[in-house]
Amino acid sequence: LDETPVVHATLNTLTNDFDLVQPTEEWAPEKTQEIKFSHKEPTATFRLNLDIPEAPVFNQVIDYSSFREQEVIPKYDDIMTCPEDTDYRSPVPNVPVNQLRAPYDNVEKYLYTHYELMKHDYLIPLRNAVKGYKEDYAAIKGKDISAAMEKMQPFQKPFRLYEHVQLNAIVFGARQPLYRISFRLPFYVRVQWAQSKRLMPGTLVLLSKDHFETDLKVATVVERGEDPMRGTNRFEFMLDLYLERDNDDLPLGFGDPMLSDKSTYVMIEAVDGYFEAYRHVLKVLQNVKKDGLPFAPYIVDLSKDILIPHYAARKRTYDINVFKRSKRDDRWPVDILGNWPEYQTKMDKTQLDALKTILSRNLSIIQGPPGTGKTYVGTYAMRVLLNNYDESLGPIVCICQTNHALDQFLEHILEHNDNIVRVGGRSKSELLKLHTMYELKKDHERPRGISRLYRSRDEVMKKIRDTMIELYEQPCVTVDFVESINGLRPRQLDSLKRAANKEKNKVAPSKTLDDSDDDWEITSVETTVKKTQPQKQQQNKRGGGRNNVSNKNDMWAGGNPNVIQEVKEKVTNPVEIWLKEAIDFVFDDNVDAFINEKNQDLLEQTKGLVFEDMIEDEREVIEEEEFQDIQQNFKGEEPDARFKNEFISIGKFYRRLTEVEPGERPGRKIVNYQKSEKPKTTANFDFFDDPQEDEDQFAWDDRHADRGSDSVERWIKEDDVYMWPLAARLKLHKKWIEARNKRLEEILSQHMNSYTRISKEIRGVMVKHEARICRQNRVVGMTSTAAAKYHDLLEEMRPRIMVVEEAAEMLESHIISALTTSLEHLILIGDHQQLRPSTAVHKLSEIHGLSVSLFERLIINQFPFTRLSHQRRMRAEIRQLINPIYRDPPLQDHPQVASYPTIKGMAHSLFFLSHNEDETSLADSASKINEHEAKIAAKLSLYLIQQGYSAQDITIITMYAGQKSILKKFLREERKSTIDTEPIQISSVDGYQGEENKIIILSLVRSNANGQIGFLRAANRVCVALSRAKHGMYILGNANLLCDRSELWNEIVVNLEERPEKMIGTRLPLKCAKHAVVTQIQWAVDFVEVEEGGCSRLCKEKLDCGHECILRCHPYDHDDIQCKQPCGKILECKHPCTRRCYEGCGSCLTRITVRLPCGDTMEDECRKIRSIARAPAGHKCPKCNAPLKA
């Protein structure tokens, strides 16, 4: 998480953010270490702030329903017109404020307010992006390139820049035509695409050809891939966009064959504000009817008269036993509106109260502080409902903020009920794989009528392809077109055709495909071309590799890989003959490769009109989930799906006809206009007749348009058109081309609209089909983003019950957009004192109340709710850290936490290691890092692994993305230099919401002379950070700074200081379990004292062999330790063993001297002499060679 600008301490914050200590003078850290870090007594209670303006601070709204007619996609004025903004303490002009402590006047005003807040949350970052770019461009205009690039460095810019943007292809996606563009990164930018947030699917991008002076195009990214497609060189990338809005008649120049290669665009994206998370929510809000908002009496009017769910009115008695039954009559009946008997439910009192709240109220709110089992209560309630109702109740819809949380929730349900549908394509759970919509549809027949719609869309695609071929690849008009517009008189047409017939009847030498293709063309046709066996064999030899399997990729630029190509004789065009050499033919280098190698894979190399392969899963809309999940996973279900396309080339290369010299093989010379100064054209209008030059040399210019000899008006009366000079012919043909192109553009637009319309019909049929599948199951799960995106599916399902997990983390508009008109029961589960919803614009969060969830707003207004009270996660001393947050009523410990073990190798299971080492900032961002903390965290985590903990038992968390990066770096270094362990998890605090682990190391990072603590002032984030550990927690930070800047932190530190065993200090105490020696750690280098995981003493523990261990103190056992001391055991020969202890005794190696029977002496190892003595036969004296005797 990169830190947002720090708001001044006197600013009012939202609910549950504590008042900050008001600074009286510039803060400076203490020069000397103090034993006591806190500087005042803790306050009895914390005063909550709710000083957000309640009255709208914008122009008077006459019609609150006007938002329904607005377009979700921003217009030119929306982005370019920036209202005059005041300082950071003032509201955004003309934007309403969320009413936190009062009911709304009516549903229209409520919907209007949340629509405008959501709209501006994505719109303001776009305005800032354009404004930032224009300011930078104005500053560097006219300067040298090096200064320009230095100015355009991306450090803390509100935009990301992409250059040399050009149209490459028209791609036909599942819902509408798309544009494939090529782009380049600025030379100073290097991107790790797999981990990058750049250009994620669903991102809104802005394009302009005049640096946003007058031209603005708005598009959304549809396909980027984990690694973007490459263009013609290694600097060029390719991307699929949907053009949402364009102020030109020809989008990105599409439909304009006269477009020059120099007509490139710049493209920018805003750093903040992920559009996909807003688009569908805004559309749903627009479609909510005045009298169609579910639960409006509670949400809008803040009524506290809560009703029983309508479906439960006739069935008040429930059996709440969800466990396996030993007897058929082992039931636990309860009256959901009466008093409940005491059953052995394994729940505490507040959990039972929560269960009763869920079953008896049509709008239920359950607050679950950390570790209190809110997910358990939610799944238990769902099991009760599933057991007490049959399929007639309809599916229960489960909504979660993140994919990870949704998978966890559904896995709990799956243990007891497998009738589950998981909507959305980003589940990583193997258990849920067979329950995804994609898999379930395989077991159902295709919906009726869908094949007909697919065929209709295929026909439209063919029409678009044919129109594109004529528009881009036919440089001159046909004689039929000339007739249709009365471009020539009848006699003139006859002269044109007669000359063409003469040309056609000329005897031409026979040619093959390898000869010039002047008289031949390759086209895509539906009919099969018969090939002889030798032809097939030759083609297979040329193809090779994967292309031998199928001929799908055999295609001309303009062909369809799903149809077979046909070589046919080219039809003579009289107009082409009439215009002679002035014709330029569209040509792509890859086409030449096709002629020589039929099976070349053009799909990855060329440009043009593209169609999605008609595979079932590819017809599904790309699933755009919440921001965090998309940035981590770009792959679809088909990794290579983006290459399964067919297209028509939008060429940038041209061939020019020249006369063939005598004896020369007929052919066409290639003219590459990318290297030419001439503008790109399809028919060359850059020529005029010049009597001083050869007849074949032309150069047409508007300056010569009125020359009498070339005037069309002069020659139009001449019936024989072949008497006209070429300049006059070209001038008239240019008018024909313009007329033809205009007509084709209109036809093309109609076809594209038809494609979009049919695609919508397909989606409508599929929605009904998917809804039937959902209704056949008992539980349907999706994320909040998917709930808005597939709102039509939810409506078609007609659910009566909806459970929203993580409700306090969702924006209010996200929950509203998930509600359906059929809903009778809404269950909200969460904790508003942990993380709030995230917003793109800080001011909308702080001043306009956008980050206050529906969950929190209802609780603020005393709406009845149930709070769970007993936590089962943390040791008691860790739980006490969050006492200031959960004070009334206090959070209590379940008896099971008393049995949690202490942390091995540590003097305390909780400790705050304080320091004064300054933070720094990353070079290319505002994120903060603290190397001192990162080094200690890395050393400490590996020390804990030495104590016997696994890497999965330890998590390091921090609030800064920069600190995450440097932690990974130091951990990699430690793993290489010490022990080979599995990677230790490192997470952001926000990303670790809802998670837990045995041991948590918290790096707070902030330590500076300015007194800034950034994220650490937010009580919600502090609550999450301090409540993730089960057995042990170790905090690294500057306690002096925190106490001086935050009353919350001051009370936390006071609590640590006043405990019998002081759990805060400037040295972290490690305790050796073997010798009870305490080693004090202040710096990372101090861990050298415990390099074996124990203390600085020798181990000296008795080994099985009887020796003492001579290693440095270590916590691991001695099973794998080799004792290398001399053995010393007395062998059978009475000699001591001379081997090392771990080698085993074996035979005696002691050298001895014996007298032989011959009188000589012999010296050797004892084992050898004893061997000879046992069997002397065959042995001789080494000196006299006398035989030895027994």
From TrEMBL:
CDD domains: NF-X1-zinc-finger, SF1_C_Upf1. Residues 347-539, 694-838 form the DNA2/NAM7 helicase helicase domain. Residues 530-541 have a biased composition (Low complexity). InterPro entries: DNA2/NAM7-like, DNA2/NAM7-like_C, DNA2/NAM7_AAA_11, P-loop_NTPase, SF1_C_Upf1, ZNFX1. Residues 850-1039 form the DNA2/NAM7 helicase-like C-terminal domain. One of its GO terms (biological process) is regulatory ncRNA-mediated heterochromatin formation. Transmembrane segments: none annotated. Residues 499-560 are annotated as: Disordered. Gene3D superfamilies: P-loop containing nucleotide triphosphate hydrolases. GO terms for molecular function: ATP binding; helicase activity; hydrolase activity. Keywords: ATP-binding, Helicase, Hydrolase, Nucleotide-binding. GO terms for cellular component: chromosome; nuclear RNA-directed RNA polymerase complex. Pfam families: AAA_11, AAA_12, ZNFX1. Residues 157-270 form the ZNFX1 domain. PANTHER family: DNA2/NAM7 HELICASE FAMILY (PTHR10887), NFX1-TYPE ZINC FINGER-CONTAINING PROTEIN 1 (PTHR10887:SF341). Belongs to the DNA2/NAM7 helicase family. This is RnhA.
